[in-house]
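Quick entry between incubations.
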Amino acid sequence: MNTGTIVFDGIEYPDGNASDPNALGLMQGSPPPLAKRIRFEDDRYLDFPQIRWSLSHMRELVPTAAVWRGNGGASEFGVTTRDSEARIDALTFDDLQGQRHTWAAALAHTYTDGIIVLHRGARVYERYFGALQPQRPHACFSITKSYAATLAATLIHERILDEGKAVAHYLPEMAATAYQDATLRHLLDMQVGVDYGEDYADPQAHIWDYARAGGLRARRPDYAGPGNYYEYLLTLRKAGDHGTAFEYKTVNTEVLCWIMKRVTGISLAEMLSERIWSRIGCEEDGYLAVDSIGVAMGGGGLNSSLRDLCRFGELMRCEGTWRGKQVIPAEVVADIRRGSDPMKFAKAGYTLLSGYSYRNMWWVSHNQLGVFEGRGIHGQRLYIAPRAEIVIARFCSHPIATSAANDPVTLPAFEALCHLLRSG
Amino acid sequence: MNTGTIVFDGIEYPDGNASDPNALGLMQGSPPPLAKRIRFEDDRYLDFPQIRWSLSHMRELVPTAAVWRGNGGASEFGVTTRDSEARIDALTFDDLQGQRHTWAAALAHTYTDGIIVLHRGARVYERYFGALQPQRPHACFSITKSYAATLAATLIHERILDEGKAVAHYLPEMAATAYQDATLRHLLDMQVGVDYGEDYADPQAHIWDYARAGGLRARRPDYAGPGNYYEYLLTLRKAGDHGTAFEYKTVNTEVLCWIMKRVTGISLAEMLSERIWSRIGCEEDGYLAVDSIGVAMGGGGLNSSLRDLCRFGELMRCEGTWRGKQVIPAEVVADIRRGSDPMKFAKAGYTLLSGYSYRNMWWVSHNQLGVFEGRGIHGQRLYIAPRAEIVIARFCSHPIATSAANDPVTLPAFEALCHLLRSG
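Done. Structure below.
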């Protein structure tokens, strides 16, 4: 196995092969040696290289609620062949810095834990590395948002929710917050003016207060902050206007999920089970990280097996139908694919995502392949290219949170794969 | 639905129907009202009535590791009929205080969350109450020990472990503890002289220190005690001799599990999956509560669906075979059924369990029906009556931990059922 390094922001990191968590002995032994232990209370489980183990073992670190797969049995999508996998492994492409990679070598470069490619609904590639196994759920991070907002858009389609209504209509206790006059549509497209920052590289960013409130980061013994997600959301104040610009803020998803729960009485875990997992033949239970009062982190707490993530991508590629049954309304999927206003998106300054928009918590490329994506920190990706009839589900444990750290390789790799498979 | 009360130690409690957690609204609402919240940090999740919700939601309170069911699909054991269920519901029996009950009414009296009866391998009765559902794992508490020790006895049978060797042979760091010269056989039959108490009604009992070390009870901000199970076990000192009397101490199981992990390198969760769950067609993943370094609580941390618990009972009834395949060695099961020395058991003073012994962490009745049992606090029971060809799996959330609180009803109820079904 070749090992190497990557460099980001001037810092050199051992690559995916060189930081394999099994080879490093992370959490091995009885007990694991002190230097190999990953404990929630040390608050370093998302640091590198610990993250290479942690993202496949989230339930061993925090409380979780099951997303039941139902009792219908797993759906099939064929088995890969050596020929098809070898052909993909040998694919070469240039990254956005002009460096040439093979597909196979790029997997270690992006700290890939697992990746599946479906072409016309058939599995043509599947790989697992490090701590991940086919049956083991992995952190989806913000791909959770795409699941949650697809459900919210479905509830709007069913007239259970009204996208024009303000948050305070559903949650009167939020009237004193930034969300008082933000509509569900503002939430869904992340166009809310709220004083909240999400720079993962900044230890003082609001995202960490939010995670600490929800029990995803350790608390000091003298912690006196919000005790759960809802308490944290009640502290958020307005900054700027709603509806003018795309501003990516995880708390918007949390408010959306709170509304879904308030109106339906159904938890996110149950809704994902009833409306997605059990309808598309998921083969493993998923799970959601929950806070101290049992509320799931709708903005990033989902863990799914790679195959089940891939099934969701295939459902979305097929306009919400699964083996002839409409599971998500076709209009909901079409609305996502149409995207929102790229001009509002451009204000956020994602230089690698030129021409994109953000709709119902999906990233919409507006490119020739019709690509739309679920994206999560540290390299999580659900990539759907309808015009190439391709779905790629990928889990990573990249040292750097922001997608900008892997997009220079990921974007051209996935596009090159689409062209390879389209060419037959 | 009839509601009533039970009295134990002079205190009156609302019965199972009157304390239904759904009717009480426990953990309902978004957020649940303060009085209806069950938070781990409040350290009251095992109090009554909170326990009526908690035992079906353990993973939402503490970190857990999955016991994977494998990918073989669920095994069948038939469906119940209304006739068979009505006949059982109408069964009457006298409890040990001479009070008459119907089977159906006794379910609320024992705070039953779920119960399944198999007769000759076919399901003849199945009921769920309160927070439990067929797919939802429930706390097994000390039935965990019967699983773990059946695996340990299997490893002894395979000569991977030696029951005559002392603990310190496998765990040199335990040489300074009570376990230095205790053998695996002493552990398996709970005949270890160790200064450790397990009176659940005493808030100062060692069991709570042990639970706190393992992360199953909340810690005060100034907590400076052991940080995990192994650290706690290293503190245990000798009291009395080994091998002379049965003394029920959960820490013995924990030491046994530590040895299994040290010798095999396989975690308890993986071993349960490989050697039991995946071999008998379990339909749901189970899970184990884990401590801060990922070590499962082998003495009581298992959660299983009721049906999967029942499958394990049926496996043991059938001498370790499952649909023609030997899963657990027949000699291991025969050894359990032969029991150990009832004279040593009698010294422990279990007045309701006259004539019993304890072997490989199973409770062996030595009665006419050949009954042997897995038993867990708050009413958990796996009851196997080979000569009646009956298995009963039952989950409860009884207000009182000790089995002595429900045995006066449970023992005659189960025996009456055996006689009813045997009579055809």
